[in-house]
Write a structure and sequence with these properties.
two-stranded antiparallel sheet; UCP033199; SP1917_dom_sf; 121 residues; mainly alpha; DUF2200 domain-containing protein
Length: 121
């Protein structure tokens, strides 16, 4: 993947709360629930529903969001293509973490079982 500093900076400065409604809409259109979305966000970051809502309310950037997160030790098992990039090949750690989240949301929307999404099987 050809990372550019401009691309990485743009992702770092994006507000989690501005992207979250798109995540929710995407999964709900496919028959999944807000609770399932929160479950996978908590699996990846350690943030429960109350913390997720607080981060949205405080207009947290992705940079701050992932600085405060406790990334799941199995996050490195998230592989595949999202937004045209192989997540396992992304060099910038923050961009990779954001794409991990994007990939999990995508898998949830595509109907994948939670156990598979959270790499428990």
């Amino acid at each position: 993947m050809k990372d550019t500093s401009h691309h990485d900076e743009r992702i770092a400065k994006m507000i989690f709360g501005s992207v979250y409604p798109h995540y929710l809409s995407k999964v709900e259109k496919k028959g999944r629930t807000k609770e399932e979305l929160h479950y996978i966000i908590e699996w990846l970051t350690g943030f429960n529903t109350i913390k997720i809502e607080e981060l949205i309310e405080n207009k947290m950037t992705f940079e701050s969001f992932f600085e405060k997160a406790t990334l799941n030790p199995n996050a490195h098992l998230i592989t595949g293509v999202i937004c045209g990039y192989r997540v396992e090949e992304i060099k910038n750690p923050l961009t990779q973490q954001v794409r991990y989240l994007d990939k999990l949301v995508d898998e949830l929307a595509k109907g994948r079982k939670i156990e598979k999404i959270t790499r428990n099987s």
